């Protein structure tokens, strides 16, 4: 928020800060002085011809607010627009709406690709298990004739699918960790260059690894189990 209607007083700034802190939709409030605003402007627009003519006293003080839910921006706008000591309430999300729309479109596209790859993976698993069962039909037929149970016959195929899935899941976990390290932490140092983007942290990566491993074991095992119910009949 920027000060207007003359220079904002200290009492007005304190009251605005207090009122912001009391609002349940506000997660964090950061004060930006004129000097800090000038520094940030120089960092972002240092090559602009206008930058050389500006001085810190021409910049405006502001409170930068992080909301718990960015969709509730209007709560802040209605509470502080037109208030003494406040020139305007700016929603930075509105400035980046086009970017967010693009990111949402890319997110939907990624989900679509994920669903397609999941279907393809299931078809490959089922087909591989069928080929394996067909190539060993003589052995499984003998086991059935001597009284072996259905699960006893299926168990080696299910275990084989589970081990193959576990190996694939392990490789996926390694690729995820290595990719996170070299693209964000080490190689390009993206987290320092693009501060506006909240990159995936190590906590989110590490908590997903057990899920990847569990899925890589369960999905092939279940696919093999249902596929073998038909193809291991004698």
User: Helical percent range?
Assistant: 55-70%
* Alpha-beta classification: mainly alpha
Taking all residues together, what is the mean pLDDT?
Answer: 76
The first-to-last residue Cα distance is: 77 Å
Strand order in the sheet with the most strands: 1-2
What's the β-strand tally?
A: 2
Oligomeric description of these chains:
single chain
Count of helical regions: 9
Which runs of at least 5 residues are low in confidence (pLDDT < 50)?
none
- Sheet with the most strands? 2 strands, antiparallel
- Supply Rg: 30 Å
Q: Judging from the principal axes of the Cα atoms, what is the shape?
A: elongated
What is the beta-strand fraction? 5-15%
Count of all domains:
2
Q: H/E order of the elements?
A: HEHEHHHHHHH
């Amino acid at each position: 928020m920027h000060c207007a209607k003359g220079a904002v007083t200290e009492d007005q700034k304190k009251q605005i800060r207090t009122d912001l802190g009391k609002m349940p939709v506000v997660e964090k409030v950061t004060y930006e002085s004129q000097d800090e605003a000038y520094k940030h402007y120089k960092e972002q627009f240092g090559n602009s011809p206008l930058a050389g003519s500006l001085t810190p006293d021409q910049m405006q003080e502001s409170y930068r607010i992080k909301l718990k839910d960015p969709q509730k921006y209007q709560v802040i706008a209605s509470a502080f627009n037109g208030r003494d000591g406040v020139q305007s309430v700016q929603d930075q999300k509105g400035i980046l709406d086009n970017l967010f729309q693009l990111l949402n479109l890319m997110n939907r596209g990624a989900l679509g690709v994920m669903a397609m790859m999941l279907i393809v993976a299931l078809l490959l698993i089922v087909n591989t298990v069928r080929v394996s069962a067909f190539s060993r039909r003589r052995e499984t037929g003998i086991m059935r004739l001597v009284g072996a149970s259905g699960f006893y016959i299926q168990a080696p195929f299910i275990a084989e699918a589970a081990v193959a899935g576990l190996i694939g899941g392990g490789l996926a976990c390694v690729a995820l960790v290595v990719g996170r390290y070299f693209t964000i932490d080490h190689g390009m140092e993206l987290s320092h260059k693009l501060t506006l983007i909240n990159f995936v942290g190590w906590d989110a990566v590490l908590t997903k690894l057990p899920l990847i491993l569990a899925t890589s074991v369960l999905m092939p095992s279940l696919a093999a189990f249902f596929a073998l119910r038909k193809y291991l009949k004698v």
